[in-house]
């Protein structure tokens, strides 16, 4: 019988995966009219990783990141009860999580995809924590993985410079309430601004002569960079404040600010608006660019492996992006 007690959630392990192939700003400037100086000044990005090779997909990255997390704690994949794969670039529109489940041999796990672009990992973590809190599942593997390089218009210099491919994974486990690490969350959606950043399905003009059905296709990422920038800088600090206030945590208590790795100017502007010391910003977008749903778990895994997090550190995590969607999770690290 499942317990109806509110359980705590612990982060047991993290893992990550990036493709071997990298693309520098100088190399991109041979494809579109841009420069290393422009990209670094406007975004902070120096290079990004691209998933090259025939038949390689988001599943390959998600599998490596997941096995990496499982290996760190020598966990048997059969112990995983649920897999949530946050991705906007699935290999199969019916879902890619089940293929990850099969490849990592997590045969007892239920698996599904969750689509919320760059906020995907935050939403997946919150979704997972609800299954844990109500006692339904004990061990949950949350993955953020994207291969936006497959959906970028490589002739559009305003978008192709930004994105990279990667995957990050996190294993969550139910714990006693005293060991809870996920203190709270705050989530938002504004569908009225969905056209600021989209990868929409386009229908052909000609319909089927008898059925009158219109077939279509997905094309490229389309973005109004200025509007997305303004949205992020104005809304993310509000989400963080709402979340902190609901938990009676003050800005001064924050040890780390881990934002979706979109643009160094956005990260600094959010920190400055909240009067958070820039030293507390976790940033690795210079190496990977914007990896969408993967960016938060990639940065988390890297910070953890660098030994950044100390016992009881307060880590503010915020995701933001297409939808538009944005949200915050407050983690208290426990050794
Ligand atoms: O997960 C969320 C994903 N989205 C984002 O994070 C996007 C948020 N927005 C941004 O990061 C910024 O808006 C960008 C980095 C995309 C663009 O920076 P910006 O300071 O907003 O530049 P802009 O779009 O206002 O463009 C300034 C100029 C324009 O030329 P003119 O009209 O002033 O002559 C652009 O055509 O820079 C030009 N430009 C470029 N020049 C060299 C645009 N892209 C490039 C480029 N290289 N790659």
UniProtKB/TrEMBL annotation:
<dbReference type="GO" id="GO:0006633">
    <property type="term" value="P:fatty acid biosynthetic process"/>
</dbReference>
<comment type="function">
    <text>Catalyzes the condensation reaction of fatty acid synthesis by the addition to an acyl acceptor of two carbons from malonyl-ACP. Catalyzes the first condensation reaction which initiates fatty acid synthesis and may therefore play a role in governing the total rate of fatty acid production. Possesses both acetoacetyl-ACP synthase and acetyl transacylase activities. Its substrate specificity determines the biosynthesis of branched-chain and/or straight-chain of fatty acids.</text>
</comment>
<keyword id="KW-0444">Lipid biosynthesis</keyword>
<keyword id="KW-0276">Fatty acid metabolism</keyword>
<feature type="active site">
    <location>
        <position position="260"/>
    </location>
</feature>
<dbReference type="InterPro" id="IPR013751">
    <property type="entry name" value="ACP_syn_III_N"/>
</dbReference>
<feature type="active site">
    <location>
        <position position="290"/>
    </location>
</feature>
<dbReference type="InterPro" id="IPR004655">
    <property type="entry name" value="FabH"/>
</dbReference>
<keyword id="KW-0443">Lipid metabolism</keyword>
<keyword id="KW-0275">Fatty acid biosynthesis</keyword>
<feature type="active site">
    <location>
        <position position="118"/>
    </location>
</feature>
<dbReference type="GO" id="GO:0004315">
    <property type="term" value="F:3-oxoacyl-[acyl-carrier-protein] synthase activity"/>
</dbReference>
<dbReference type="Pfam" id="PF08541">
    <property type="entry name" value="ACP_syn_III_C"/>
</dbReference>
<feature type="region of interest" description="ACP-binding">
    <location>
        <begin position="261"/>
        <end position="265"/>
    </location>
</feature>
<keyword id="KW-0808">Transferase</keyword>
<comment type="pathway">
    <text>Lipid metabolism; fatty acid biosynthesis.</text>
</comment>
<keyword id="KW-0511">Multifunctional enzyme</keyword>
<protein>
    <recommendedName>
        <fullName>Beta-ketoacyl-[acyl-carrier-protein] synthase III</fullName>
        <ecNumber>2.3.1.180</ecNumber>
    </recommendedName>
</protein>
<dbReference type="InterPro" id="IPR013747">
    <property type="entry name" value="ACP_syn_III_C"/>
</dbReference>
<keyword id="KW-0934">Plastid</keyword>
<keyword id="KW-0012">Acyltransferase</keyword>
<comment type="function">
    <text>Catalyzes the condensation reaction of fatty acid synthesis by the addition to an acyl acceptor of two carbons from malonyl-ACP. KAS III catalyzes the first condensation reaction which initiates fatty acid synthesis and may therefore play a role in governing the total rate of fatty acid production. Possesses both acetoacetyl-ACP synthase and acetyl transacylase activities.</text>
</comment>
<feature type="domain" description="Beta-ketoacyl-[acyl-carrier-protein] synthase III C-terminal">
    <location>
        <begin position="246"/>
        <end position="333"/>
    </location>
</feature>
<dbReference type="Pfam" id="PF08545">
    <property type="entry name" value="ACP_syn_III"/>
</dbReference>
<keyword id="KW-0150">Chloroplast</keyword>
<dbReference type="InterPro" id="IPR016039">
    <property type="entry name" value="Thiolase-like"/>
</dbReference>
<comment type="subunit">
    <text>Homodimer.</text>
</comment>
<dbReference type="GO" id="GO:0009507">
    <property type="term" value="C:chloroplast"/>
</dbReference>
<feature type="domain" description="Beta-ketoacyl-[acyl-carrier-protein] synthase III N-terminal">
    <location>
        <begin position="112"/>
        <end position="191"/>
    </location>
</feature>
<comment type="similarity">
    <text>Belongs to the thiolase-like superfamily. FabH family.</text>
</comment>
<dbReference type="GO" id="GO:0033818">
    <property type="term" value="F:beta-ketoacyl-acyl-carrier-protein synthase III activity"/>
</dbReference>
